[in-house]
Amino acid sequence: MARPPTAALAGKKGILRVWLSTSVFMLAGEGNFGDVWFPVVAAVAAMETCCPIDGGGAAIPGALMEVCGCPGGGAALTPADFIDLRMDCGCLHSQLTTTVLVHSKGRSQPPKFRILRCNPQLNLSSLDSLKQTCSGVALELKLRKPSEKFCPVQTVGIRCDHPQNADLPRYYSRKEKKPFPIPIVELRRAARDRMKNRLPKRRVPPPKIGLVIKSLVPAAYNVFNARMTVINNLKRLLKVVTVNGCKWCNEIHVGPVGHPFKSCRGSQASQRKGHHEWGKAVLEDIIVPLESYHLYDRLGKRITHEERFSIPRIPAVVELCIQAGVDFPEYPTKRRRKPIIWTGKNEFVDADESELPDPEPESPKPPILTEIPDPEVEPPSSTEETILLAEETLVAWEKMRAGANKLIKMYPVRVCGYCPEVHVGPSGHKAQNCGAHKHQQRNGQHGWQTAVLDDLIPPRYVWHVPDVAQPLQRELRSFYGQAPAVVEICVHAGAEVPEQYKPTMRFDVGIPNSIKEAEMVV
Description:
Elements: E1 15-18, E2 24-28, E3 35-39, H1 44-50, E4 58-60, E5 65-67, E6 75-77, H2 79-88, E7 101-103, H3 126-134, E8 137-141, E9 154-158, H4 184-197, H5 217-237, E10 243-246, E11 252-254, E12 278-280, H6 283-286, E13 291-293, E14 313-315, H7 316-323, E15 341-342, E16 348-349, H8 383-407, E17 413-416, E18 422-424, E19 448-450, H9 453-456, E20 461-463, E21 482-484, H10 485-492, H11 502-505, H12 515-519
GO molecular function: RNA binding
Domain APO: 245-330, 415-499
Region (Disordered): 350-382
């Protein structure tokens, strides 16, 4: 290990200010300070010009290391110390910057400084790096030798509110099974830990015993009305915002001209060398019409293969809202007032509700919005109305996703791991209509697993167009970001970009003006 440089600290009370750059240093005091990790800011080149290396050593000027009470005081560095310092400054971490002030009390012995090489996060994707850099970082001042003369341990919090660009959503091939939201290994490990620690059994949620959670009934109405608001507003926005759809695959693009990327996976894609054939997109290309079977009794018997045509199918989000408490005369459902009585592992009987008093009159429920027919759709009359319509659509979109995410935590939703089939209920149906990869080996049966929010409401990511006047270039594909189709349409209509979508849209990435400039990017 290289000999640590030293710095003279004059006076009993002083403030040590350090302005250096592109490295992480550790300040190790001899009982006065302790171990401090902090990233520092300035240029090493400036220090090299300010600190000439000579035979007698290099002096750190007061601009870089200033000791209060000793104006112009600096610390002497030997050539070996300065070379080690310049070599350790190779680790760059520009995500977080700060200035650290270290207060000293008591003894006036000159502390020793040593440079510690940083430990970079290896083998991490940009999304993991985003989590590492944008979370709260604590800087602790720990005393190596406890003493009553010095102040107690202090913690300084740093938080990055402007995250960098994140990874684009992964594309799953049709031959690949979807990953489980929680790996099976972790579920088994958690179950073994509960048995080992003899923890009490978890309380059974009301939906598993046939009851409705009354506190989530308003949320169900909000989700349903938000969905109708998004659909009605998108019908109007499509009159002023151009959305293109490929004629051979399900890819869409928001903009006057389709993107030039060779990403078509439809029929005869090899003959077209992956090029898309663009046409006008419709609402169903943006809001994917995922349907599921409507259940009169969510705890009843599973739907068999022979019943697949006799049971109506409705949008999955609507079915989730019905089971959560939304009343539809067209789609009746069974509402229990008392929990069921289990008679076996998979058998139960309904409790006797005849002894219960008459139900109290319920408060008036929120009105239910309806979809506007296509002939009655009118485009926005002005630019201001278009912007307001786009902002209202973004609010309704976030409200629908947030409410649906709250509902699926209490009302289980299943999805096939091989195809997009969704079933709202405790267990999937038995209809053998899966046509995904190697469905013959499963006899057409679905591989049910717990669904996540994107399975219920697919976001349909599209390429973000920074400038509508300039179409995307094929050679600059790695510089462009992506966003959900609804968000991209609202942004083109004049709405502000929500903060949670900026990392994937890559607003902090500079786009080269030409291909030659892109080749010079390291």
